């Protein structure tokens, strides 16, 4: 998958290295993965000796482990970028090997060797900043009023969020226009059925897309520009894109990958509200659940919504890419 992405979006050469996770309870699988990891380290050492890099940048995950082990053996300095507040197992291993560690917020320092950490922020494409809201809304056929809620869950969507929006749709469209990027995992059909059950006068406020391409007039950057509020997961990019767009959010973190710490980083700064996935709709009437309670308050109180947006925008770091690049060049001796 990574190779296809690189070939489609750049002219950079791509070299795949053998890698495998070193977690689990199956001894046989662990032994097989250890062999794969050893092969990866050997392949990475050959690559380093051929290319002779001045410094290496890695972004975490077990796929980086062979390269960072090889870099340590070859005495090549490494910069590890860990975008999530709490690193996973591979991130913690890589942190021991890395020369320097770049993070999104200083909240991460408590989970890492603090003397190695530099706060750079999360690089965000420039078009997300300073959008023309009127033009962005026009691109999606949205009106100036009522407020626009952007719902998204990544390229594959988020089924539990999609189901919650379907349950709350008759309430939502009374107070907001909904721009819903549902993902390409099959949810679009039943969401369109929920749309068709709305009163015709309100149905025009719901705009459903399975995916928004970055090079189209209707892109995610344009969607951020059109929105007043978001409902989404709390992945690493969320901590940068929402501030860049200057909008607040109701975050539904995935606890299996520790997104609740990302959500808390924004919520503790007044830029978001965090609600547990399993608690979104409550135990009885969805309209009495935590998600609709939070959304209704923000949709009916412009000052609360604006305050959250201002706090979110204050966290934007438009120079994050430049900081990361500067740290990398410093390691390279440039």
Written overview of the protein:
- By secondary structure, the protein is α/β, with parallel strands linked by helices.
- It has two domains: 123 residues, Rossmann fold (3-Layer(aba) Sandwich); 187 residues, 3-Layer(aba) Sandwich (Rossmann fold), CATH 3.40.50.
- The chain is built from 14 helices and ten strands.
- Strands 7-6-5-8-9-10 form a six-stranded parallel beta sheet, sandwiched between helices.
- It is elongated and about 65 Å long.
- The chain starts with a helix and ends with a helix.
- The model has no long low-confidence stretch (mean pLDDT 94).
Observed structural traits:
about 325 residues; alpha/beta; Rossmann fold; 2 domains; 6-stranded parallel β-sheet; 4-stranded parallel β-sheet; about 45% helix; about 10% strand; elongated
């Amino acid at each position: 998958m990574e190779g296809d992405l690189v070939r489609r979006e750049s002219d950079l050469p791509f070299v795949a290295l053998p890698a495998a996770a070193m977690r689990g309870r199956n001894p046989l699988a662990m032994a097989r993965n250890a062999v794969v990891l050893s092969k990866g380290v050997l392949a990475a050492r050959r690559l380093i000796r051929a290319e002779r890099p001045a410094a290496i940048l890695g972004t975490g995950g077990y796929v980086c482990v062979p390269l960072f082990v090889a870099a340590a053996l070859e005495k090549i300095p490494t910069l590890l970028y860990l975008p999530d507040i709490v690193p996973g197992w591979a991130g913690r291993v890589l942190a021991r090997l890395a020369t320097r560690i770049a993070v999104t917020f200083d909240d991460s320092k408590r989970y890492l060797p603090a003397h190695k950490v530099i706060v750079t922020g999360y690089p965000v494409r420039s078009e997300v900043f300073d959008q023309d809201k009127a033009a962005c809304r026009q691109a999606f056929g949205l009106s100036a009023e009522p407020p626009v809620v952007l719902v998204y869950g990544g390229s594959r969507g988020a089924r539990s969020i999609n189901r919650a929006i379907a349950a709350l749709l008759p309430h939502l469209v009374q107070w907001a226009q909904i721009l819903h990027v549902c993902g390409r995992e099959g949810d679009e059909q039943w969401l369109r059925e929920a749309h068709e059950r709305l009163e015709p006068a309100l149905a025009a406020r719901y705009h459903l897309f399975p995916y928004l391409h970055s090079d189209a007039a209707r892109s995610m950057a344009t969607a951020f520009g059109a929105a007043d509020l978001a409902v989404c997961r709390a992945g690493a990019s969320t901590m940068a894109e929402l501030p860049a767009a200057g909008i607040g959010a109701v975050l539904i973190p995935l606890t299996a990958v520790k997104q609740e710490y990302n959500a808390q980083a924004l919520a503790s700064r007044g830029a978001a509200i965090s609600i547990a996935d399993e608690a979104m709709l409550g135990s009885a009437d969805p309209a009495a659940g935590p998600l609709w309670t939070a959304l209704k308050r923000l949709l009916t109180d412009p000052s609360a919504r604006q305050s959250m947006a201002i706090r979110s925008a204050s966290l934007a770091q438009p120079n994050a890419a430049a900081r990361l690049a500067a740290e990398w060049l410093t390691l390279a001796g440039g």
